[in-house]
Amino acid sequence: xxxQIPLYPLRSAAAAAAAAANRKRAAYYxxxxxxxxxxxxxxxxxxxxxxxxxxxxxxxxxxxFENDESDYHTLPRARVTQRKRGLEWFVCGGWKxxxxxxxxxxxxxxxxxxxxxxxxxxxxxxxxxxxxxPRNSIKNQKYSVFTFxxxxxxxxxxxxxxxxxxxxxxxxxxxxxxxxxxxxxxAPLGFVLAVTITREAIDEFRRFQRxxxxxxxxxxxxxxxxxxxxxxxxxxxxxxxxLKVAVSxxxxxxxxxxxxxxxxxxYAQKPQLDIHSFEGTFTREDSDPPIHESLSIENTLWAGTxxxxxxxxxxxxxxxKETRSVMNTSNPKSKAGLLDLELNQLTKALFLxxxxxxxxxxxxxGFVGPWYRNLxxxxxxxxxxxxxxxxxxxxxxKAAYGWMIMRDESIPGTVVRxxxxxxxxxxxxxxLTDKTGTLTQNEMVFKRLHLGTVSYGPDTMxxxxxxxxxxxxxxxxxxxxxxxxxxxxxxxxxxAPKVRKSVSSRVHEAVxxxxxxxxxxxxxxxxxxxxxxxxxxxxxxxxxxENRTYQASSPDEVALVQWTESVGLTLVNRDLTSMQLRTxxxxxxTYCLLQTFPFTSESKxxxxxxxxxxxxxxxxxxxxxxxxxxxxxxxxxxLEEECGNMAREGLRTLVVAKKALTEEQYQDFESRYNxxxxxxxxxxxxxxxxxxxxxxxxxxxxxTGVEDQLQAGVRPTLEMxxxxxxxxxxxxxxxxxxxxxxAKSSHLVSRTQDTHIFRPVTSRGEAHLELNAFRRKHDxxxxxxxxxxxxxxxxxxxxxxxxxxxxPAVVCCRCSPTQKARIVxxxxxxxxxxxxxxxxxxxxVSMIQAADCxxxxxxxxxxxxxxxxxxxxxxxxxxxxxxxxxxRSSYKRSAALGQFVMHxxxxxxxxxxxxxxxxxxxxxxxxxxFLMVGYATVYTMFPVFSLVLDExxxxxxxxxYPELYKDLTKGRSLSFKTFLVWVLISVYQGGILMYxxxxxxxxxFVHVVAISFTALxxxxxxxxxxxxxxxHWLMVVAQFLSLGCYVAxxxxxxxxxxxxxxxxxxxxxxxxxxTVVSCLPLYTLKFLRRKLSPPSYSKLTS
Length: 1102
Prior knowledge:
- It is found in: Golgi apparatus, trans-Golgi network membrane; Membrane.
- The active site is at residue 434.
- Its cofactor is Mg(2+).
- GO terms for molecular function: ATP binding; ATP hydrolysis activity; ATPase-coupled intramembrane lipid transporter activity; magnesium ion binding.
- By secondary structure, the protein is α+β, with helices and mostly antiparallel strands.
- Helices cover 46% and strands 14% of the residues.
- It is built from 40 helices and 27 strands.
- Strands 8-27-26-25-9-21-24-23-22 form a 9-stranded mixed β-sheet, with helices on both faces.
């Protein structure tokens, strides 16, 4: 019914003016929903449809279906704002845009990229190659020797806070503007820069060492058989081994050295990002006639892959920056946390307040004398409004959070590699995760075999084994009694009338089909101490069952062959032309491999044609996804239902079928197939058409179900993250069916949730129709392939992202590393929310580096993702604690720490303002020298910094109630509202402290300093106690240590304090009175607020 509903509402028939327009669009509406009895055309068949659709805007709201004014509805583009003009544009960020554009232009001029071209590479004749190619090395370092210091300084001084204090410090070299000692300004700034430069130098040296290690690895070596296995886990994330084939004409050379004496060359396409395709030719000119062989992805070994079995001799085509792995890796960048950016905005607000206060002071002064100099002096006097210690405290806090994360015994092996963004873990809204090795262990286990009338599970596998043993024992006895007969026994049965097969024979046929239809190769390790020469490799191998392992292009394939071995039919040998199976009785059956049709994402199936050498029977076996096989097999009434049942169990299903061929049928097919493969135009389509001629009325044998083992704790972790308000996207290079199955079994998509599988689209019109169909779905997960995603982003980027962001979960399959990184960047751009990417392979590095926060898992796919990430963990389930405990606490602690440090600067600046206004607006400092340095360090630093130990809830409570994490994404812990509250507190306390000291002081001015400064220190210590939510013993130590340091220093600071006065009772009661008045009202307000409007976490802790 849904297919018959028009996508756009038609105007009433009474509107005559619209009749012509409606007739013009008849083709579109008929495609959207044909009338009863009409012959329904193909979805994307009409040629003129795309032309109309290109001009039709997508509808993004239900209003389009309800509005009756027009057939076409204008789409409000997502977040498109009116462009500002003139001076307004320049002030509101235009200057920054112009500077950035100029810098980018200069960089492009200096680092102009060389145009990528196709190339011809001669064997053994390097002098024939006229082109120059990049050095065969990779570089992941951010800086060079010459750009390190300028680069680090630029990263630091792009923050307003650091740039401001650089200007303030430099101003102290001007005598007329000098306020205090130079060290009071340059020491804190120098400390911040020294720490930053040291940290960056260590990180850069580690990158240099990693690059040196990778660049020192060399490739050597194709096996004598003409094939080898490689591991591509660092390129596409798939841990299975892939079979690669050599150029056939080079395999006939007598010796390896003859490769350099032949006159041959390789022509290859220009370097590109796609890791799944390659086009080239191999030409040998010294033969008659010249030999031309086409090269494809099966003949290539990309840089970053590992030769897992056999040895390889190859021709280097792409080097350095032109290799697929480097082209798919983005350049590393420096990451700044959202908290740092927010604090940067607050410091700008403080600077405006500083300027305003200074202007007010000069105005009240009456602009007498050199007023501009007085203005600058006031700017310097009130410069403590923006505290340089803010950067010091926050950087030290980040280091403390990293230390706590690595010391957490609940997440052992966790490493913090980027110490500047731990607070980002507490602000995440989107989590983008890889599948293979991240959510799953990539270990397949055979779970179910269904024959239509009978189903076998893990508990009944022994019955299958008994059927296989019985079948082969009968076959063996028949063969033994009829050894002289040249007519195959099975052939004679073909002319007999069809009878219902027994369960035993059906099980036997199914197991044999599974054992033959695959791309698995048994691999035997060499004996210990054996020679490594290629000619002795066969002799020195151990062919026992214990020494055999299976390798294939998919772990599903290996699981199926391992299962056939467990039930008695063992694959013992395979090469390019044959394979051998061992029966339960020990007999070895040999099958000749006539043709192999590999699996592709388009066909969703694979097949083989084999000849049984003992009977000369030719059989075409095929297996694939149910969506592809349902139209190929003979009619049945159980396949669709059972596939659905297995999918709901989280199993990956494959339909297995066969078709017997006569010799004449096969010879006809082979001639047509070879002719199609030699075609120069539309080769893939012609080959597919020939193969499809065989795929008709095939006999359905069985349905298999394989389970991909999930990582430990994946389901509860995903559930916890969802409850925490985090939306999860799965980006994988795997097949659509596999990705969908894992999304359901891991509960990324709940069982009650609908799933919309985005149909393959290749044009704008197709994307338009499919997006409109998807728009009508509500609260459903989206599954889309990389190719369709590319088309949607090309034509409808805003609309697609708007729709996808509304989904509870998104699964993107067949994604290249570059696509993964682009999706992350688009999410950041369109939503403005913080993103986190997590993966474990080299193909995840770009995604990890593009995200606001990157997490790498040390797993089977190596350590490349772990080393490139900001945080490294050992298991996916550790993400939950890393985010909801450490991320949450890091953000809340840094928010409290940052605001308290700003309060510390605001309160002393308020006191300075009151002091100057009382003394005729004189630009004279209230506190000088060591008092200012001590105030920001030993007197208050330890208690303030101890806020990094504060926690509002216990870690186990945060894990139990992940909903507490949701509040953090709104940024309420640090906002302009909370900032204004602290400003009011600072103004109140600063005014009370200064006016109180001026009212209560006696005869000498030094008493004002003594009373006000002592009350200030006590107020700061009490305010820390007011802010703390959970006391730690180190907090108590910090309080008493700071108070002790201050009391001890009074005896040595005779320049600022009258020792005789501070030891009197008068001093004590005056200081106590001022301190109580400044703090008691705040304690009272805090108590009333917690009673009347308690925060959410307090309800849990109580």
